[in-house]
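Why this split exists: single-chain examples teach little about how molecules sit against one another. For that reason, every record in the complexes split bundles all components of an assembly together and asks for one structure covering all of them. Below is a record exactly as it appears in the raw files.
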Amino acid sequence: METAPKPGKDVPPKKDKLQTKRKKPREWKNPESQRGLSGAQDPFPGPAPVPVEVVQKFCRIDKSRKLPHSKAKTRSRLEVAEAEEEETSIKAARSEQLLAEEPGFLEGEDGEDTAKICQADIVEAVDIASAAKHFDLNLRQFGPYRLNYSRTGRHLAFGGRRGHVAALDWVTKKLMCEINVMEAVRDIRFLHSEALLAVAQNRWLHIYDNQGIELHCIRRCDRVTRLEFLPFHFLLATASETGFLTYLDVSVGKIVAALNARAGRLDVMSQNPYNAVIHLGHSNGTVSLWSPAMKEPLAKILCHRGGVRAVAVDSTGTYMATSGLDHQLKIFDLRGTYQPLSTRTLPHGAGHLAFSQRGLLVAGMGDVVNIWAGQGKASPPSLEQPYLTHRLSGPVHGLQFCPFEDVLGVGHTGGITSMLVPGAGEPNFDGLESNPYRSRKQRQEWEVKALLEKVPAELICLDPRALAEVDVISLEQGKKEQIERLGYDPQAKAPFQPKPKQKGRSSTASLVKRKRKVMDEEHRDKVRQSLQQQHHKEAKAKPTGARPSALDRFVR
Amino acid sequence: MTANRLAESLLALSQQEELADLPKDYLLSESEDEGDNDGERKHQKLLEAISSLDGKNRRKLAERSEASLKVSEFNVSSEGSGEKLVLADLLEPVKTSSSLATVKKQLSRVKSKKTVELPLNKEEIERIHREVAFNKTAQVLSKWDPVVLKNRQAEQLVFPLEKEEPAIAPIEHVLSGWKARTPLEQEIFNLLHKNKQPVTDPLLTPVEKASLRAMSLEEAKMRRAELQRARALQSYYEAKARREKKIKSKKYHKVVKKGKAKKALKEFEQLRKVNPAAALEELEKIEKARMMERMSLKHQNSGKWAKSKAIMAKYDLEARQAMQEQLSKNKELTQKLQVASESEEEEGGTEDVEELLVPDVVNEVQMNADGPNPWMLRSCTSDTKEAATQEDPEQLPELEAHGVSENSGSQEVLSELRVLSQKLKENHQSRKQKASSEGTIPQVQREEPAPEEEEPLLLQRPERVQTLEELEELGKEECFQNKELPRPVLEGQQSERTPNNRPDAPKEKKKKEQMIDLQNLLTTQSPSVKSLAVPTIEELEDEEERNHRQMIKEAFAGDDVIRDFLKEKREAVEASKPKDVDLTLPGWGEWGGVGLKPSAKKRRRFLIKAPEGPPRKDKNLPNVIINEKRNIHAAAHQVRVLPYPFTHHWQFERTIQTPIGSTWNTQRAFQKLTTPKVVTKPGHIINPIKAEDVGYRSSSRSDLSVIQRNPKRITTRHKKQLKKCSVD
């Protein structure tokens, strides 16, 4: 007598679900062996099914590219690689199912504009813990503030124009340090951890620890206007008034590269988190993309008719938002085309831009902050309707979304404001990578690991996946050299050697005939190919569509 | 002189004759009748002697004509004295004896035998030995090939190979020392005992054991023998069939086929007598074959072979015959089987049963042939319909105009078809119009309003703006267009024609882009953006805003950002282009000096044009300059030599696409991806692989040692080889 229900038996397996193992172990086929000691049957036998789309997300092998014919041995290696990829991506997809947190958004009722919902309403609606994340720091004395959140999103550092520098654990509001550097502070940035703080002061770049003790004064980086830290390369990028972009390796304290942008004063900078390329905005309306390995910019994009005021790149490295003196806000596609996807003219133009982890775009215009949201994580923010707006007590001077929190930090002349922006932060954090709740010990351990995994600075390039490609130029060069050295091509196809045949068919004449046949076939192939190419050319050259008209000559 | 000598010899001869004749006379005293016979012989002899006088053969051949009693040793005459005496002749007895034959044979053998060969020199013998040993060793070692291959491909190898058996006691032992104590256990044991389930030895129940014992040894042996025989027979037949299949002789196959046909006919005859029902089926089969033949073109002189023969037939009698043969074969195969009727006629009234049966057979076969054939069942009307549908739809109206008398159903069909054909015609026409969209005017006028609407669009395009202001205006206009003309309206008006024309426009624009100078490059930017998948959103503010923008424009009127950028881009493009090499030497072969330049012809001749590089990545992106320089620092970290089994870099790239670090993978996946290839157990001796480890029975070592111990043992094959070497 069986009392255990068997829901899994009659239900046909869904089509879009993938089984982890194609070949199930033999035990699973036998229903008896599925039963445990108690005799009850597993209602969900086998590993949990995973949706195909989720698995696809983790697949990295581009199968659309047709490979040339490969030998059996090579084919087996390729098969192994593909099987490995599938297995690992299924595992990754399955582990993704464990991510419990889900992002939420503000959704207005029919016809209700979410932009009209003010911070007070949101604070009223949310729980106490979240409500505590909205606060204002009234610091009118030391002028407009720049601010920066640490990578874990736990700590906040801000520096006022008039020398006020402070760092605090903003969640608990515990102050770590507060000093006045008695000098103008242009920018402030946490280094790899919250224990180190880089401050761009009027003359030089200074580094403080979390006690406010000055550790270094880097005189080679002078008159720095903007700072940007590349966490995986341990590089501090500084843009200076003198027009130099300097990369400082903070792990060894060496300047990796000092690049002259040849475009005057640099005061617009942002990093592409996907490939660690630095974007600089210039007064001639261009945005240039830089890597420490190259003396010239990797690319230059003409974005605005006036100077560029702000640049921001989203976390996937797909979209770049720019605002210029021509009061336009544009979103560019960075996947090879560098064309604007959407444009919007703003009444006063945006002076500061920032992307959130989930792709929300914030723009600071005067004392107003506008936030636009897209359809999902991988879509660009639509600039038609703002998602949220907020008016501050003074003009905006610094903007940043807090990582892993639905919080936007705004530095302005009146101090610091921490805004609640539902749906801004990534709800699930990687505890091994950037854990907001980590202890001191964990931080130290992570530091060591991160230093061990430091990426060399010269690997920064536009397409980081290009590093996983073979250097074809060197390969061909090497081949050529080898051929020169040996006097023949060892990889060349051996001339056809007819196999000896029995029963007297291996006469010299027949051998020659067979050789001839193969040669002719090859020749025919060649001719066929060249003919095809010709056809292609002709097809291209032919005017497609309408016949040429006599009036065409007047068309300029 | 000679005559004298001749006379003397003749005299001597006669004297001798007389001497010789003495006994003869004595003998022949009784028989006088043979006297004249003697005379004849003498005459013959004389003639012979005379004839031998001339020529070289002057020596007289002595002949003993008659047996004489006394044979003196001086008078021995040898017959055929010129011949050489052969040893065998001496031995030859009067009558052949078997014992002597063997001797003779031995003698011949002795004679045929040559001298004993020299032994090979040491090196050669050793070489052959080595070769033999190598072959044998290679053969022995080849059984390791799959093992080696498997180990090479294995993801992980664990050493040492022999695994220690886990010291887990089998369940019987555990159970034997265990007793049921609680009532529940006792109950369970009772149940088990009742069903004769094994308690201590859980492998086999008594029933199973009994069944195992059921088959006796002899039975099993017999059965095995039977199976073996069956297998042997099967393999024999298989081999035979294979052999026969391989025979290439056409004649043979012809004969075989003929034989088979004959046999089949005979069998059929027999079958008809014995089992009429089965014969019927057979007949059906034959009929089917006939149908197949009729359907196919196999013997219709239409094949490749037949065509070639047809060409040759004019000149070649054989080819003609072959063709005839093929045709006759076709006729024969397609001929309707007359077996039944013939038998009817032949057998007539002899066997009533068959007479009754055979006509039935014929009828049935025909019915069968007719029954499933859908083509035969067609009625006439349906045929006409078919024809109508198959006809060209364009001709249909004409057909209708003729007014053929048809029933109502077919008319309905026709009317439907007509509608369809009209549609088709329309489509056709519209396609034509599309093809000549900018063609002659009357055609355009005949069309529907849709193309007329398009013309303004086409004309509108060529306007090209020169300045920033104009560009701005253009942008505004487009914005207005976008705002004021919502999508559905556009789609409704232009109907299906817009998608056809849309792709044309960008193409033309592209072409134009190449033609216009770089100055105006950016003006095409907005349309090119529009053609992107994601639509551009451009919001326009009220008039205040516009005024504001106007102000901004005025403010930036001085610095022409676009022109600067284009200039920069042009320079970058120029710099990245490969340079031509000029090898002209001024003054070489002509006058040189200040103010004199080498001639253009010479310069052209010595200018080596650089090969055109690949197209720039920013070729079609007017607002972008992409640096084409190679990042050599990054390239130093890239793979530059393809590892072994890969022949193309794409193949290798595919294998390194998946990252193996823990940053990108789950812990399990990371561990699996980074498992070591070889795992050794610390503190254990790793012995070399043995045959038992991989499931082989015998050790290969013994085979090896045999060869090494007595290398003198050589197979017959190698003996032959030895001989060959010695002959050479």
